[in-house]
Amino acid sequence: MKRLPLLRLPAAVLSLALTLAPAAQALTPQQAGELLESFYIDTIPQSVLEQPTIDEMLDTLGDPYTEYFTPQEYQAFLGSMSDTAVVGIGVSYTANEEGLPLIQTVPENSPAAKGGLCPGDVLTAVDGKTLSGMEWSEIALLTKGEEGTTVSITYRRDGKEHTVTLTRALVVFPATTSELIDGHIGYISCTTFGEETAGHVQEALETYGSQADVWIMDLRGNGGGLITAAQDTAGLFTGPGPIAYLRDNSGQYSIYSYRGDYATSAKLIVLVDSHSASASELFASAIRDCGAGIVLGTRTYGKGVAQSVFDQNIFPTYFADGDALKVTSARFFSHNGNTTDQIGVIPDLLLSPEDTADAAYLLSGADPSGDTSGVLRVDLGSGTSWPWYIDLESASSPEYKAAFQALLDSIPDNKNLWLGTGGAAGWQPTSAAEVAGACGLTYNAPYFPDQEESDYSTALSVLKSYDLIRGRTDGLFHPQDSLTRAELCQILAEALNCSVPNNASPFLDVADDAWYAPAVTVMSNMGLVSGTGGGLFRPDDPVDHQQLITILARMIQRMNLSFYEDAKTIPEGVENIVELSRYADWAKSSVWLLGYSQTNLLGGTLNLLWDDVHEIDPTAPAARDQAAWLLYRLLSYTDILPA
């Protein structure tokens, strides 16, 4: 099959469009194959190219982000990234802990507003059909309909269910809205990143900038949009400089940079959830990496790939009918060089959907301006020098008590808290446990009961705070136990937030119904682990030190572009380095990468392992806490974990 010339996206694509021969038909399977071979991020299997239709080609490819649009579907896709008008009940929502729709916004004069629905209500049924376990698309179909028709909505508020009948109407949902709260908090809700987004946010900053000393950017439920829109919007808070990097299928990088100036120097809190994806993750990671603010909520979706849309403007002869093809063409990396693929963005504070907004409000307390009595100061780091202030009287009130307890529970062990002493005396150090006790709350410590048996107790606590490790079924971590191959796969699958794989186990001794089978399979799919020969994996065998180092080195190369590039600089003759003489040849490159490739500020070698390279016994069994510590060390060093 003919292969189009490899091009740098997106600018070069436009010039190519001028060289194509005329055609007078919609996209053909052969043309679709040419585009996929030229621009798809990975090698296209021959089985994809052999399919007779475009739909069958994309089904065989198995990438949910690579899509063919009919002319009608393409117009709907373009419309999804701007202000949207729909006929329905008039609510936007995100998922709560049960997976049910948690109402975020209710436009004024919408059917929902007239029926008394409010943000924070949870939808449980539509026309008597329970929404539990239902896909978002199904829920949307139930609530939408013809203008003037009625629909029965059941919702839960304060533990009680209510049912109301609403009359569907045309409702306009602005993609970005803003308001001022309490006279000093600027609130921006953004449901998609489109061409209008940066302008809307700029307008909000200009409108309320003289009054707002803290901004809340709400990206919950924001599925993404245009990279350039996220870049230009983030730049309003980060100022000039790189926002993200994209790597294409030829290994070339494109840099997305903001060239304007700061639009505000105020503090920023970004709200995210499990439906915040793609451009939303790019925005959130840019804010955190650049020290422009903090991120609150659940771990984000984990879409670390970018798509290029080919349409009539780029390939006029391929898409003469107004159709389009969206192709996964690059992997993107944050300002600090980290992918969000699968792992998503890890918030500074991990909070449930129910508590995220209230926790953000509590952290948005005004600067005490000298009188610190009754104020809790939280220093969250992440590159910011800003302290965050919580008024303890408001936080302990019935309205915010639950969110305050969740907030205290979410603060990792390595963060600093200060209690105001009043007046010029300033602050005295405190802890989340002490504050919870003083406010009559029950503090749920992010600790494993047996973690003090380990030299790496802080690492275990921080990883648990972010729900990256969960221990064994008895609630203990068993830090000194030897680590099995199956357990290591499970630990990494949980930490990386991997989805359940679609394919069967590739190993004869890993049954599909084994508790570790999904983790082993997905780690194999990612190329982090391999078998031991003869189609076997030996899941119960212990992991030795050199195996652990090799697997974690593969992991960090996949997640961080600096390590990906550093791995290309492994010196010739690495197998002859004296300090590595005890290690197997297949492990030496990985040991060098983690033990010798990094340098400190003075140019000296920075060892990322738990001990000096020559002090580690390569073939000794690795302990569970050594694996946890190395995971923590690599995620912290690369800033995948909040600083």
Could you please describe the fold and organization of this structure?
The protein has 643 residues and is an alpha+beta fold. Strands 10-11-12-15-16-19 form a six-stranded mixed sheet, with helices on both faces. Helix 11 (353-363) packs across helix 13 (401-410), helix 15 crosses helix 21 and helix 16 crosses helix 17. The two termini are 49 Å apart. The model is unreliable at 1-25 (pLDDT under 50).
Major sheet strand order = 10-11-12-15-16-19
Q: Total number of β-strand segments?
A: 25
Shape type: globular
Tell me about the largest β-sheet: 6 strands, mixed
Structural class: alpha+beta
Measured as a percent range, the helix fraction is: 25-40%
Quote the beta fraction: 15-25%
Uncertain residue ranges: 1-25
**Estimated radius of gyration:** 26 Å
With helices defined by DSSP (H or I, 4 residues minimum), what is the helix count?
Answer: 21
Mean pLDDT: 90
Distance between the termini: 49 Å
Descriptors for this entry?
21 helices; 643 residues; alpha+beta; six-stranded mixed beta sheet
Helices and strands in order:
Blueprint: H1 11-17, H2 29-39, H3 46-49, H4 54-61, E1 67-69, H5 71-79, E2 84-88, E3 92-95, E4 101-105, H6 111-114, E5 122-126, E6 129-130, H7 136-143, E7 150-157, E8 160-167, E9 169-173, E10 176-181, E11 185-190, H8 197-208, E12 214-218, H9 227-238, E13 241-247, E14 253-258, E15 267-272, H10 279-289, E16 294-297, E17 305-310, E18 324-334, E19 349-350, H11 353-363, E20 375-379, E21 388-391, H12 392-395, H13 401-410, E22 416-420, E23 427-430, H14 432-438, H15 457-465, H16 485-495, H17 517-525, H18 545-559, H19 561-566, H20 585-595, E24 598-599, E25 605-606, H21 624-637
Parallel strand pairs: 11-12, 12-15, 15-16, 16-19
Antiparallel strand pairs: 1-18, 2-9, 3-4, 5-6, 5-7, 7-8, 10-11, 13-14, 13-18, 17-18, 20-21, 20-22, 22-23, 24-25
